[in-house]
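Consider a protein example.
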Amino acid sequence: MRRAWSRVGAVIVVLVALIAFVGHGGRSSVPPARGEPPAAAGALSVVPDVVADVEPSVVTILVGDGLGSGIVYRSDGVIVTNQHVVASAADGAVEVAFADGRRAPGRVQAADAVSDLAVVKVERTGLPAAKFRGQQPRLGELAIAIGSPLGLENSVTAGVISGLNRTLPGVDGQGGPGGEGGQG
């Protein structure tokens, strides 16, 4: 089960990062041949289109006095977010605010502290599910994050994939900074 969530996590950690690239002709930030001008401006030009495609799928998860971001994973009400966002949810109860302005109660279905992933279910259908590409990102590839950090809705930032297949010290069961032999 943890391995399955890790695969979902690989996609969600980049949270929307490469979601819509397939819908934009699969453009990537492949380095130009020698003598050609850098394509950075061209790669970044897709950001507004990706944001427009994905923004309806981005949600805000409200838990008590806190909140965080999530993404509609399936149109039948399955939402993926971070475990730390829902960690304080009493009895797994949360509220989900959608891009269309509507809100719905949700319930945490699963959460994993090691991968920092959680699944929330709401009783709402016909939701705009994000489209995820099937392959893993490449090192250096453009990544776009859309969410509501600190309650600032519709925040967008872009960068590059800086590393792949990393394990954070102290959360992999091996100890290290911030951990005494892992988490149960």
